Amino acid sequence: MTPTPDRVAPDRVVLDSAEIARAITRIAHEIVERTHGAPDLVLLGIPTRGVPLATRLAARIDEILGNAGTPVSVGSLDVTMYRDDLRMRPARPLLATSLPASGVDDKPVILVDDVLFSGRTIRSALDALRDIGRPRTVSLAVLVDRGHRELPIRADYVGKNIPTSRSESVRVSLAEYDGVDVVRLGDDAAEDVLGDDLGAAPDHVTDDSASPDAASATTDGSES
Amino acid sequence: MTRHLLSAADLSHDDAVLVLDTAAELAVLADRPIKKLPTLRGRTVVNLFYEDSTRTRISFEAAAKRLSADVINFSAKGSSVSKGESLKDTALTLEAMGADAVVIRHGESGAPHRLATADWISGSVINAGDGTHEHPTQALLDAYTIREHLCGGVGDLNGRSVVIVGDVLHSRVARSNVLLLDTLGAHVTLVSPPTLLPNGVHTWPCNVSYDLDACLSKADVVMMLRVQRERMAASYFPTEREYSRRYGLDEIRAQQLPDHAIVMHPGPMNRGMEIAASVADGPRSVVVEQVTNGVSVRMAVLYLLLGGNEPAIASGRGGANRD
User: Fold this and answer.
1) In chain B, whose CA is at the least distance from the CA of A133?
2) Which residues of A touch B (CB under 8 A)?
3) Which single residue of A25, A69, B47, B72 has CA 20 to 30 Å from A111?
4) Minimal Cα–Cα distance from B217 to chain A, Å?
5) Contact A81 B37 (CB under 8 A)
6) Is B135 a catalytic residue?
7) By the 8 A CB rule, do A72 and A41 touch?
8) Residue range B137-286 in CATH 3.40.50.1370
9) Residues of chain B under the 50 pLDDT cut
10) Is B55 a catalytic residue?
11) What is the pLDDT of residues B221-242, one digit of tens each?
C-alpha cells in the first residue's frame, strides 16, 4: 500500500532545543546591549507561548547583568479583546494578562512572542498597550520570523528567520506547555494547526500559533 | 444564528466556568486608568426594562460601555409602552434600529423566551430577570463571588454548601442560583416557610429545610433573599416580625456560621427584615462586592455572546438552526 497523499511530508525540525536556548541567550545579550542594561526594562509575553519565552529571556538577562536583587520585570499581555478578526470566529476564551506592579509608564517595554507572521497580533498588542500606559519605547522580540507581513511591523530581536510559504505552518513547542523545546515546520496549514479548532479561520490568524489546546477547546461545541 | 441567555440552565458546566474565567480576566480592567476595551465597537445593546431596577440596569449599561458597545436604555415608563404598545411592536422597533443584543427585564415570566423565539428580532436576548422565573446573570455573579472567596478564584464550586433563605416562591434569583450552583457542583439548601416555596420544588436539584438554625453551622455561604412585598397579593406569613424572627439573619444567627462563611444578598435589602443591618454591613457581608462583580460577569456574558461571529456559550438552546 502506498502512503495516503494528504500527509506526504512529515514535519521538519527547524530549531531544536539547544538552538532555541542559544537563540534566547543571543537575544538576551542583544537586549542588554541595545538597552544599555536598563534597570527598568519590562518584558511582556503574549500568551500563550510568548509568556515562557519572556520569562526565560528575563532570567538570561538577569544572569548577564548579575542583578540578583532587582530582576527584570516580566508580565503577560493578552490581546484577544483587541484583535481585528474577532468577528470572523466564535468569541475566544481570554488568556491571562498580568502586568508588573510598577506598570509600564515611561519604561522600555519589549513585547515577546513565539512566531511573527502577519503582524496583526503585534498591532493588537500595541493597541492594548496604549490602554495600559505609555511606555518610553516598545520593541519586539520573537523566536521565529516566518515572513508574510500584512502590516508595517518588524521585529527588533529575532531568534531565527525561517522563510515559509503561506500554506506551511510553524509549530512552536515549549517545555512549559508541551514538555519539549522544538520548532517544527509542517506543510499543511489547514490541518492540525496550532491548536486552532476552526478550519474556517482565515490563515492570517494563525500567527498566534500559541493558543494551547486546553484553552481553545473551551469554545464549547462550536463545530459539532 | 442567534444565541441567548434566558436561563441558568442554558449554561453547561464548561460554559459557566468559561463565563467566570472570562469575568476574572475582565475584572482587572476596573483597576486600570482606561476602563475600556474596543471589543464590541459598533454593536448596539438595548436595555429593555419593563420593571424598575437600579443595579441590574446600571450594571449592564456599564458592562456594555466598557466593551465600547452603543447602549440604548429603554424603560417602560415614559415610552410608548405606557400608551399600550405590545412587546411585539416594541421588539420590531428595536429590530428596525439594529439592536445586536436586547437585555430584557420584564414582570412576566417567559417574556425573554417569547422575545428570543418569536422571530421578532435577530439579535441575542439576555434575560435580566423575568417575573418569578429566572435571573441568570445574577446567579453568575453570585457564583463568581463565591468562587473568589471560597475557591481561590478558579474552577467550579465543587462541594461548597450554599444556603438560600427566604422568599423562594417569588425569587427568580433563587431559581437561577439553584440551577447554576448545582451545575457548578455546589450543594444548595433552600430554607423558607412552606408557604413561600413554589410547587414542584422537590424536583429542583437541591434540599429543602424549614429550619434556618439547623443549616447555619455547615454553611459556606448564606444567601438571603429579599421579601418581595410588591409581589405578595396574599398573606404568606402572619407578621413581618414573625418572619424576621424565624428566617431573618440577625447577629446571633450569623455567629453560628463557620469562620470562613460569607453572607450574600442580591439587593435591594430590607434591613431589619430578612437581614440585620449589622450583618449586612459586617465583615462576612460581600453585598457590595456582588455589585462590583456584576459588571465583570455581564461584560463576560456580552463578550461571549456578541464578541465573535457566533456565541461561545449557551449553544445548546435558543437557536436550533445551526449548520
Assistant:
1) B33
2) 78, 81-82, 86-97, 127, 131-133, 218-222
3) A69
4) 37
5) yes
6) yes
7) yes
8) yes
9) 1-2, 316-323
10) yes
11) 999 999 887 766 667 888 888 8
User: Which residues, given as ranges, of chain A have pLDDT below 50?
Assistant: 1-5, 7-8, 189-224
By C-alpha distance, the chain A residue nearest B13 is A220
The ipTM is 0.81
Nearest to A91 among B28, B37, B311 (CB): B311
Q: What is the 3-state secondary structure (H, E, C) of chain B?
A: CCCCECCHHHCCHHHHHHHHHHHHHHHHHHHCCCCCCCCCCCCEEEEEECCCCCHHHHHHHHHHHHCCCEEEEEECCCCHHHHCCCHHHHHHHHHHCCCCEEEEEECCCCHHHHHHHCCCCCCEEEEEEECCCECHHHHHHHHHHHHHHHCCCCCCCCCCEEEEECCCCCCHHHHHHHHHHHHCCCEEEEECCHHHCCCCHHHCCCEEECCHHHHHCCCCEEEECCCCHHHCCCCCCCCHHHHHHHHCECHHHHHCCCCCCEEECCCCCCECCCECHHHHCCCCECHHHHHHHHHHHHHHHHHHHHCCCCCCCCCCCCCCCCC
User: Is B83 known to be catalytic?
Assistant: yes
The strands making up B207-209's β-sheet, listed across from edge to edge, are: B207-209, B187-191, B161-165, B221-224, B262-264
A25 in a structural domain: yes
- Cis preceding-peptide flag for A5 (omega within 30 of 0): no
* Active-site residue, B105 included: yes
From residue B122, how far is each of A186, B3, B117, B305, B318 by CA, in Å?
41, 9, 10, 13, 12
Task: Give the active site residue among B39, B55, B93, B246.
Answer: B55
CATH architecture of B8-135+290-306: 3-Layer(aba) Sandwich (3.40)
**Domain at A119, CATH number:** 3.40.50.2020
Tell me: cis bond preceding B22? Omega within 30 of 0 counts.
no
Query: Quick one: pLDDT at residue A90?
Result: 87
Q: Whole-angstrom Cα distance, residue B301 to residue A168?
A: 36
| Active-site residue, from B83, B202, B239, B322 | B83
For position A188, what pLDDT does the model report? Answer: 64
Query: How many other β-carbons are positioned within 10 Å of the β-carbon of residue A221?
Result: 14
∠ at Cα A115 (A150, A31), nearest 5°? 105
A37: closest CA of chain B, how far (Å): 29
Question: Which among B2, B22, B44, B56 is annotated as catalytic?
Answer: B56
Structurally, chain A folds into a number of domains equal to 1
